[in-house]
Amino acid sequence: MNETSLQALLSSLCAMPQEAEWIEFKQNNEDPQMIGERISALSNAAALMGKDHAYFVWGIEDGTHKVVGTTFLPRKAKIGNEELESWLSHHLVPTPNFRFYEFVAERKRIVLLEIPCASYAPIRWKELAYIRIGTYTKKLLDHHAKEQALWQKFSHQAFESGIADRGVADDAVLSLLDFDAYYRLTKQSLPISKSGILDRLVSEKIINESTTNLFDITQFGALLFARRLSDFATLGRKAVRVVDYTGSNRVSGGREYIAQSGYAVAFEPLIAYIGSRLPNNEHITQALRVETQVYPEIAIRELVANAIIHQDLEMQGDSPFIEIFSDRLEITNPGIPLISPLRFIDERAPPRNEGIATFLRRVNICEERGSGIDKVIDAVEKWQLPAPEFSATERHTRVNLYAPRTFREMSSKDRTRACYQHVSLMYVFNQPATNASLRKRFSFHDDDYKIVSKIISDTIQEKLIKPYDPENRSRRHARYIPYWG
Predict the structure, then answer these.
(1) Which residues pair with 104 in a beta bridge?
(2) How many structural domains compose the chain?
(3) What percent of the chain has pLDDT above 90?
């Protein structure tokens, strides 16, 4: 916040008839333990009361709200050898992105601590969560009704509905957000007046009108249209990263690229950069050999878009991460998948970030009907690449696209995965999956049906597919469906 925004915020806080559960005034009390407990209590109370932020202000007389000034110097305060802000962060879980502001009002020093509301779990201080009851700070576990209400709030909140920057002047809004990109992507004419542009951004919930000539930039708006995500304290670590390694492992060293802009602005340059770093491969089409990048662009586009819209934005310090190796492309996003990776091909996973997903679909950046993974599998089969691998770790979702391999170079797992994905794709397309269709998938001749029969048998053994008609004894002409079909 700038000086004007801070002065306006202080005036509005002091105008409150009494301390609210999301506001605390002090003069000089700078006890670190007290501050940690208050951050937890105020953040949790703000969430419960539907406020984006809570505020702890030093230099204001409690009761009268008179500006008296403070001697508290947060940036010089230390606990042992550790700075106060760092010490507080270490003991708060999840760590809120709180921020101290120091300024002068009525010729008196003021310290304002801005605390984001808890967003997906109660903020704990030294393993205990606190809450405000009136003007008192209490342990949350002693107030079961408040705790239940708080968890109920979390189930309905979305990260993208929060505020990335508040109290921003109109010119600063247009400086921080790439409004030209918004009009270009939505195929609208750019208004001739500044007010026309701002009104449209308000209608899209990219910004909210705060007070006269001041606006709040939503996290939804900044995530999509920031000129630089690093301009926003809560979003600086949300930029998509790409690392291009020189070999097949991370030891080989690589070049890093960070898509600094919001996702809608950065998407096309990001896809172009990935394409420029990929090796070429001979692709056969209509009996002609053509040199093209090693992975189909449609697969890269869909998978990168999926990583963006399905990421868990609440995971601090983490963002979609793309790694280019000599033998594969890995795309990782924070957050475990909401459905089994085996069902990506047929089920539409609910996006964690519905607003972002809706807008990216609207401007044709990602698939509208949830069939993006179907397109990925279809393109991979047409290019006769190894089947992509979808997996989940304890905190992330990952997909591997593999560079060309001969059949002999494929492991048994590679072959059964390709068989399962082919059978699933045919089922989704309402087409029969047979030994013949799998021979085409693997580029085999008709007399190689026994090899394919072995792959089918192994995939059935893994309980990934099953016969369409178990009574049919002709394996050569049998049809197969996925285990969930």
Answers:
(1) 109
(2) 4
(3) 61
